[in-house]
Amino acid sequence: MRCPLLVLPAVLLIALGALACGGGAGPPAAGDSAEADSAPAEPESADLNDPVAQRVEPFQIFDNLFYVGIEWVSCYLLVTTDGLILIDALYGDHIDTAIDGIRSLGYDPADLKYVLVTHGHFDHVGGAARFQETYGARVGMTAADWELAETPPDNPDWEIDVPVHDMVIADGDTLELGDTELRFYVTPGHTEGVLSMEFPVREAGEEHRAFLFGGVGLNFEGVHRTNLYLDSVARIQRLAAEEGNPIDVNLSNHASMGRIFERAEQLASRAEGDPHPFVDPEGYVSWLAELQRNAEEKLVVERELAGE
């Protein structure tokens, strides 16, 4: 996926976008307006829409968390004692990949209670209506990104079936299902209403604090949005540094942005007694610092473009 930004000075802007996108395909681009937000970048390769090329075998990360996404876009299955939660919903033919993955892991998609969408770009929300209509899952998103998802795109290739408004999630809201409570944070920047969330993940009776930043990519435009992004990163940095309660598991909604597959390979080959590769509070702090540095560099560029 291209991370298109303004042409001048193009080299630095593209470099910043690539860094934020994990060096590879990233989320759709977003401008300062709702209209710009509704126009994600078109994939550079048709492989991004090919369910065979994009297929990833589902895998377990923790006792209650599984990956059912594709190579490009993440999708997580969170298992509770009272049903299932899907985080992001993929799009197009990839929706079947998530459904097949849920079944292959031994779970029934009919047990889905919620689909939580990190932001309103098609690659994250595109499958939500199908999960809602077929399995009765309730769909949750922030108000700003409900509006974004409902904005007709300029390109028909980006059109989605928009789900019915079930839940408008606000900052500080919580959701409890069975033995699991999720806490929500509105962290704008990548879009105006990026939804981030934290929840417990467990292995062999040990619990960890997982956090999913719902909009990592810097592929958007403008001083205002870049400042929003920096504010959001600073807020997550404060959360991560809470004494006695660090964020120790980093999840990302594009796998390349959070080294999801690299850590999954380490997990698959972990020897008895080795640490869990997804549990890394120090690495999370370093990752956030990198996001901050990249955004600060972008802010310099955006201010120059704005004549400030």
Please write out the topology.
Layout: H1 10-20, H2 34-37, E1 59-62, E2 65-67, E3 76-80, E4 83-87, H3 94-104, E5 112-116, H4 122-125, H5 128-135, E6 138-141, H6 143-150, E7 167-168, E8 174-177, E9 180-186, E10 195-203, E11 206-213, H7 223-240, E12 249-252, H8 260-268, H9 281-305
Parallel strand pairs: 4-5, 5-6, 6-7, 11-12
Antiparallel strand pairs: 1-2, 2-3, 3-4, 8-9, 9-10, 10-11
Helix pairs in contact: 1-9, 7-9
Protein described:
This protein is of the alpha/beta class and 308 residues long. The chain has one domain: Metallo-beta-lactamase, Chain A. Helix content is 32%, strand content 19%. It is built from nine helices and twelve strands. The protein has a seven-stranded mixed beta sheet with strand order 1-2-3-4-5-6-7. Strands 8-9-10-11-12 form a five-stranded mixed beta sheet, with no helix packed on it. Strand 8 and strand 9 form a beta hairpin. It is globular and about 55 Å long. The N terminus is likely disordered.
